[in-house]
Amino acid sequence: MSDQSILALIAYIAGSLFFIAISALIFRWILGIKQIARSSELSAILLKKIAEKNGLTDEEKKEITKYLDSKY
């Protein structure tokens, strides 16, 4: 094998590894976003249950929902 073909092979391997690493990072990033969204959803459900348990009126619930929607 010539020096040029060895360099081409090394470049191909390096490029492939770079692509795999970037793909893995993007995949983990997407999973992280989904986990944050799920956690936020569970927090909202818990907040609603606590509000119902403490006897908040519908108007107060709407105010809380409006505030949370504007924040997030």
Q: How would you describe this structure to a colleague?
A:
This protein is mainly α and 72 residues long. It has one domain. 90% of the residues lie in helices and 0% in strands. The chain contains 2 helices and no strands. The longest helix has 51 residues. The radius of gyration is 25 Å and the shape is rod-shaped. The N and C termini lie far apart (59 Å). 0% of the residues are buried. The mean pLDDT is 86.
Q: Tell me the strand percentage band.
A: under 5%
Overall geometric form? rod-shaped
Helix content estimate? over 70%
List low-confidence stretches: none
Number of strands: 0
Rounded to an integer in angstroms, the radius of gyration calculated over CA atoms is 25 Å
Average pLDDT figure: 86
One letter per element, helices H and strands E, the order comes to HH
Count of all domains = 1
Number of helices: 2
Reported for the largest beta sheet, the result is: none
**What structural class do the secondary elements suggest?**
mainly alpha
**Intertermini distance:** 59 Å
Draw up the topology in text.
Blueprint: H1 3-53, H2 58-71
Provide key terms for this protein.
72 residues, mainly alpha, 0% strand
Summarize the structure in short.
The chain is an all-alpha fold and 72 residues long.
